[in-house]
Each structure stands twice: as structure tokens, then as C-alpha cells.
Write a structure and sequence with these properties.
By secondary structure, this protein is an alpha+beta fold. Helices cover 44% and strands 15% of the residues. Among the domains are: 49 residues, no CATH class; 86 residues, 2-Layer Sandwich (Gyrase A, domain 2); 45 residues, DNA polymerase, domain 1, CATH 1.10.150.390. It contains 18 helices and 12 strands. Strands 10-11-3-12 form a 4-stranded antiparallel sheet. Strands 5-6-8-7 form a 4-stranded antiparallel sheet.
Length: 382
């Protein structure tokens, strides 16, 4: 940016805060004319003034109403990807409740995996990656189990077709068994694995049955928790949608673009990227749901809720165990749920309520400290 333009932008210091001025300097191209820059600066000032809030404005209540009112018009359905029954995503009100309650176990965890160049335009490469990351358990590859109680052995036949599809060999599969099948000898041919029990005591027969059930769940390849994969075209590139999520292991893959790949599990984002990313994820996820429903909520309302959920450095849900528990006011906590419990605990600890918020003042019939109720009048006596 030209030096004279920098000076011109700085001349707006009385109308705009430093952070906005810095952002303008960084984002404006250098080939603008003076008149174009003036128009931009006037538009920025107008936009900034529109965004300002009057002192004493009840932002929390406005946000609650702005989210709650359209929330009553949301449909309660889950959305299915065409032709794939297993891949559905919770949307609408159930998803909003899931996010705001900060639930650890969400109904439909999923990821959108973006790929780096040149992989993202090559459908064969995308399919190859999708097959590589899908969690494949042994039970998917077995065509037949046979138990022989007299010889105390378990035979499993593998599907030749599936092994070729997944590009696996019996030898690779047997490697996964070594630590998990103690007490059994393993021998194998091209498409058959035989487990022979070392001990021949009759009471040990049930071990064969246990082994049969145990080996079904052994992971043969792929990334843990990735149950389904679906390559999809988005604009000019292909991405992989997954049912199930495991950010930590996916991000280290060389083909994956870590700057755009994301999960819809907010707690996982918090573990991998930290609380700032989790805050942004809450905003993005809520906004996606609202947009999909065709509703219009000012993003600042969602940002406020998200800030409150993440203000302590951990994700707190808007529940009696989360945000409400953190409130300083005893009466505000008691007004939400389980009032007797809150009042008894406060009495035992000798807590004092300073009556600084809305709910507690409404309860005891005082003006609330908002809008015209905010300034206090002091008179001078002569």
C-alpha cells in the first residue's frame, strides 16, 4: 500500500478503532485510486457505526430472543445423503440443542476432509484415500467361520474378492492378531487362517467361542472410528465426507489439507486445536444449521453465545452443569433449575448476591440495571 494511502487511512483514527484500521491496511489492494479508497473508508465507517451498541443495551436477552424465536420454526428431521443410509447428519433443532448443550457424544459425528493439490482434482486418488482411511474390521472380510471342538481349532475363510479390493494380504492381517490372541497358535494359507488352542483342557473350550467374537472386532486397516466414507464433488475439487471422526490421525496424512479439514465434534476440535478453534467451530456449526433451515440470525448473537460457552477456557454447555453453574448470582442460579439445592448450598457457604444482573432484580421487584435503569442519580446537597 502506498505511503500517502496509509496516512489517509490513519486520518480516520478518530472514527475507527486501531484493529479495524490495521485490517483495512492489510486487505486493500495497492492499485486503487484516491476516490475509490475514500468510498471504501466511508463504507467501513458506516458499517462500524451500524454495528455499535448503545450503552446499557441488553445484548444477552436480545440474543436469546433472536435465536429462540426462529428456533421454534425449525424442522425436526435428519438429513440423509442420497443413496447412503448410514451417512446422515443431525440438522435443525436437535443439532442446535446438541451444540449448545456441549454434548460429548453427538448423534452423527462426521468430518469433511479436504485434500492438497494435485490430489483434490483426481477422483482415483480421492477414492484411494477414502478406502485407505475407512476403518475395516475383520468381520467384513470373512466369508465363513468354522469351529472344531475336538481338535480345538477355529478356521476362518477370507473373501478373495474383498482382499483384492482392499489390497490386503492374509500375512498383513495375521500381523494384527499377534498380541490379541495369546494362548493360540496361528497358521495361514492364502485365504484361510487357523487358530489352534495350545491348552487342551476341556474347560478351556469356551475360549474358542470368545476368540471368535473377539477377532470380529479387530481393526485390519484404516483409521479408528471412521465408519463410512463418501467422496463428493464440491465446486472444482473432490472432498471426502466421513461418518465418524478422528481429527488427530487424519490431519497427519500427507494428502490431507490440515488448514481446511474439520470435524463437527466441538470437543474434539478443542482437544486438537484449542479453545479458540472450538469457539469458531461453535459459530460455524450453528450458522450452518440456521442457514440450511433458511433462517436469518445476526451472527453476533451466535458469537455472544459461543463466547459465553468458551470464556472459562473449557467448553461449557448452556445447562445447569455448565454456564448456569458458573453464574455469580445465587438467585440467577436458583431461577434456572433445582432452586432449593442452590439456595441451601449458598446459605451453607454464606454467599452474598450483589444483584447486578437481570433475573435476580426481576425476582425481587427492582428496576433492572439495563437501559434507563443503568445510570444512578446522585444529587449534591448544599
Amino acid at each position: 500500500m502506498k505511503a500517502e494511502y496509509v496516512t489517509f487511512v490513519d486520518s480516520y483514527a478518530d472514527k475507527l478503532p486501531p484493529s479495524v484500521l490495521t485490517e483495512v491496511k492489510e486487505s486493500i489492494p495497492s492499485d486503487l485510486t484516491k476516490s475509490e479508497l475514500t468510498k471504501i473508508m466511508e463504507a467501513v465507517v458506516l458499517s462500524y457505526n451500524t454495528a455499535k451498541i448503545n450503552p446499557g443495551e441488553c445484548v444477552g436477552l436480545v440474543s436469546a430472543e433472536s435465536i429462540g424465536e426462529p428456533g421454534t420454526q425449525m424442522t425436526l428431521n435428519t438429513f440423509h445423503f442420497a443413496g447412503v443410509a448410514e451417512m446422515n447428519v443431525t440438522t435443525g433443532l436437535p443439532r442446535i440443542i446438541e451444540i449448545f448443550d456441549a454434548r460429548k457424544d453427538i448423534k452423527t459425528p462426521m468430518m469433511e476432509i479436504f485434500l492438497k493439490e494435485p490430489h483434490h482434482t483426481n477422483i482415483d486418488k480421492v477414492k484411494e484415500l477414502a478406502t485407505k482411511i475407512k476403518e475395516t474390521k475383520l468381520s467384513e472380510l470373512v466369508s465363513e467361520y468354522s469351529l472344531n471342538i475336538f481338535d480345538q481349532l477355529l478356521k476362518i475363510k477370507l473373501s478373495k474378492e474383498l482382499l483384492e479390493n482392499y489390497d490386503l494380504s492374509t500375512k498383513e492381517i495375521v500381523k494384527n492378531f499377534k498380541t490379541k490372541t495369546k494362548g493360540f497358535e496361528i497358521s495361514f494359507t492364502d485365504y484361510e487362517i487357523v487358530f489352534t488352542q495350545k491348552s487342551t483342557k476341556p474347560e478351556e473350550i469356551k475360549e474358542l467361542y470368545n476368540l471368535k467374537e473377539k477377532i470380529k472386532d479387530i481393526k485390519v486397516r484404516g483409521v479408528k472410528n471412521i465408519k463410512q466414507v463418501l467422496p463428493v464433488k464440491r465446486g472444482e475439487e473432490y472432498i471426502v465426507l466421513t461418518s465418524g471422526t478422528n481429527l488427530k490421525e487424519i490431519l497427519v496424512l500427507p494428502e490431507v489439507d490440515p488448514s481446511r479439514t474439520f470435524s463437527n465434534d466441538i470437543h474434539e476440535i478443542n482437544e486438537v486445536f484449542g479453545i479458540e478453534a472450538a469457539r469458531q467451530a461453535i459459530i460455524n456449526e450453528v450458522y450452518r444449521v440456521i442457514e440450511a433451515q433458511g433462517l436469518n440470525i445476526d451472527i453476533r448473537h451466535i458469537m455472544l453465545v459461543s463466547d459465553i460457552m468458551c470464556a472459562t477456557g473449557t467448553i461449557k454447555g448452556i445447562t445447569r452443569y455448565g454456564v448456569v453453574k458458573e453464574k455469580a448470582s445465587v438467585l440467577a442460579r436458583a431461577s434456572f433449575e433445582t432452586p432449593i439445592k442452590h439456595l441451601i448450598n449458598a446459605a451453607l457457604e454464606g454467599e452474598v448476591d450483589k444483584l447486578t444482573s437481570v433475573v435476580e432484580n426481576v425476582m425481587i421487584n427492582q428496576p433492572v440495571p439495563l437501559g434507563t435503569g443503568l445510570p444512578g442519580l446522585i444529587t449534591k446537597m448544599k
